[in-house]
Specification:
Elements: E1 8-11, H1 18-22, E2 53-55, H2 66-76, E3 80-84, E4 87-90, E5 94-106, E6 109-112, H3 116-122, E7 124-125, E8 132-133, E9 135-145, E10 151-153, H4 156-165, E11 176-184, E12 188-190, E13 193-198, E14 200-203, E15 218-221, E16 223-229, E17 232-234, E18 240-242, E19 246-252, E20 255-257, E21 262-267, E22 274-288, E23 292-298, E24 304-307, E25 310-312, E26 316-332, E27 334-339, H5 347-352, E28 356-371, E29 378-383, E30 390-398, E31 409-413, E32 425-426
Parallel strand pairs: 2-3, 3-5, 4-6, 5-9, 6-10, 9-11, 11-12, 11-13, 12-15, 13-16, 14-17, 15-18, 16-19, 17-20, 18-21, 19-22, 20-22, 21-23, 22-26, 23-27, 26-28, 27-29, 28-30, 29-31, 31-32
Antiparallel strand pairs: 1-10, 1-14, 7-8, 24-25
The structure holds 2-acetamido-2-deoxy-beta-D-glucopyranose (11 copies).
């Protein structure tokens, strides 16, 4: 939610594959991947063959390879392929937003140093939720592929340990795509359009007693026409999250474990801002051991404190035309959580100050599987601040079994529940 660190993103479905990486240089070529089975309303732009390669020699011993990598991007921009087939270290922030027609063939590994003092000072900062990044990609027509063995390692452990002592620490995001038109594979997708993410594995975990915090798999922000598919996410925060101004998004074929769900929001956090999430299709995903399966969270109409470094509410806008279809659940606390009172536990206060964000035309279809024992026999919660701001909420063919085997119950409050087929609603 606030800022995020991904410990490691293994590109193309392989667990941390150090043996494969150490086995020697591998040459990989751009895979041919299309959105499937759901597609966007228009085809993604095609990307011409590259006609030049720029290899980067690693300095080894943990020495900083950032300047050599930057040089390769300069040399191979406008039609080439940057080949990263060794183990590299990055200890300097890299601004790669000048790209135009370049491939990145990452069959090696990239590890960011754990020099917290340096990164706090020098990472790229964004206003949105105090986020920051080690490097950013932007421009036009960029493909990053890992051939099943490429590895990005954010070195999250040092950050989780420091964050436990310092809750306002700004922790960088492993990969930010900022203003990219046409491309593939990233973590924060911001100011971008026509993006395809496919066959990526993200593993986040802490080896100390300090939890890995704020570790979203992918976030979209101010972005249009994005497909995220056929990937594996093991983390402890949102698996995918649609932040302000995410439109025409497809998420399909994911397997998420231990997360906070596939989430719209949070939205409406900042007073005076206007947030839009529209035309989102979440199709045929599996969610296991999560706090939530399908989640929509917007702040109420009043700005109050929530957690250290996190407060909000009062922002306006809308969430419209969001579908979750064929959703397989395994041991999730809430199968569906729709909340128009996010960050505010006082429901009286929430109803006194209804959200300035409308939620409408929402579809939950064909859900299967099990909930966890946490709220048994309750399996979901849908709480709105007012029926004027929350309408056309549909559920159909939802078949969920809580561990007790009892008839599942749903908490439903503050909106017209006529379109929730077969729901047994209680008010708390
Ligand atoms: C390589 O591709 C770039 C961009 O598509 C083009 O401008 C350039 O002329 C090509 N060079 C060669 C040698 O084909
Ligand atoms: C996206 O663009 C906005 C301006 O339109 C800028 O303020 C912001 O820093 C950019 N990047 C991110 C990640 O928000
Ligand atoms: C749903 O996803 C699973 C696993 O990714 C896949 O095997 C199956 O073919 C998909 N089904 C449909 C109808 O797309
Ligand atoms: C899923 O996450 C749980 C923790 O929530 C973990 O114990 C388990 O090992 C993970 N499963 C897989 C297949 O990674
Ligand atoms: C989202 O789009 C609306 C309408 O174009 C705009 O007013 C608002 O500033 C945008 N919000 C963000 C966070 O970029
Ligand atoms: C709703 O969104 C889907 C894509 O998710 C799109 O195909 C459809 O046209 C949208 N419907 C409306 C009424 O905008
Ligand atoms: C950023 O963090 C500071 C310090 O924790 C906090 O006061 C501020 O509200 C945060 N800003 C945003 C935009 O979340
Ligand atoms: C909730 O907010 C209302 C309105 O401000 C207040 O009267 C009430 O005491 C609050 N309840 C709790 C439990 O804080
Ligand atoms: C938010 O809603 C409140 C009423 O709940 C209203 O007084 C206020 O003007 C709204 N603010 C915006 C920015 O729409
Ligand atoms: C209900 O959902 C299940 C699981 O996705 C599907 O197999 C079944 O065909 C659906 N039934 C109806 C009546 O749509
Ligand atoms: C709804 O819940 C009540 C209370 O637990 C239970 O008695 C009733 O059988 C349930 N009805 C259905 C249709 O599941």
């Amino acid at each position: 939610m606030v800022s995020k660190v991904i410990t490691s993103a293994v590109v193309a479905g392989l667990a941390v594959a150090s043996s494969a990486r150490l086995a020697g240089k591998s040459s990989i070529s751009r895979p041919n991947i299309e959105p499937y089975p759901k597609t966007l309303s228009h085809p993604l732009p095609t990307s011409p063959q590259r006609n030049k390669t720029c290899s980067v020699t690693s300095r080894g011993s943990g020495d900083d390879d950032a300047s050599a990598i930057l040089q390769a991007f300069n040399d191979c921009n406008n039609g080439g392929t940057v080949v990263l087939d060794s183990d590299y270290t990055i200890g300097t922030a890299l601004d790669l937003t000048f790209l135009n027609g370049v491939d990145v063939a990452l069959s090696g590994s990239i590890t960011f140093t754990d020099d917290i003092d340096y990164w706090v000072e020098n990472s790229f900062k964004y206003d949105y939720q105090n986020s920051s990044t080690f490097w950013k990609f932007g421009g036009k027509d960029v493909n990053i592929y890992g051939g099943g063995i490429g590895l990005l390692d954010g070195n999250g452990q040092a950050w989780y340990d420091q964050f436990a002592a310092e809750p306002t620490l700004l922790r960088p995001i492993t990969l930010v795509l900022d203003g990219l038109q046409g491309g593939s594979w990233f973590n924060l997708i911001a100011n971008s359009s026509d993006i395809l993410v496919s066959d990526v594995t993200i593993n986040v975990g802490s080896t100390s007693s300090n939890p890995a915090k704020n570790t979203d798999g992918w976030d979209t922000l101010r972005s249009d026409s994005v497909v995220i598919q056929d990937s594996i996410v093991n983390n402890g925060d949102d698996c995918v999250s649609f932040k302000p101004n995410s439109t025409n998004i497809v998420v399909q074929g994911l397997s998420c474990n231990g997360s906070h769900g596939i989430s719209v929001g949070s939205l409406g956090q900042y007073p005076l801002e206007y947030d839009i999430v529209e035309n989102v299709y979440v199709y045929n995903n599996t969610m296991s051991n999560a706090g939530d399966g399908a989640r929509i969270k917007v702040w109420p109409g009043i700005d109050t404190a929530f957690e250290p470094g996190l407060n909000g509410g009062g922002g306006a806008g809308y969430v419209r035309n969001v579908t979750y279809e064929m959703y397989h659940n395994v041991n999730n606390d809430w199968i569906i959580e729709l909340n128009q009172c996010y960050g505010q536990s006082n429901t009286t206060l929430c109803q006194m100050y209804p959200s300035n964000m409308t939620i409408s035309d929402i579809y939950f279809l064909d859900f299967t599987g099990t909930s966890s024992k946490k709220y048994d026999p309750r399996v979901g919660t849908l709480v709105c601040s007012s029926s004027e701001q929350c309408y056309n909420i549909h559920a159909r063919n939802i078949s969920i079994t809580p561990p007790s085997g009892k008839a599942p119950q749903w908490i439903c409050n503050g909106f017209d529940t006529v379109d929730l087929e077969g729901f047994n609603c209680t008010s708390s």
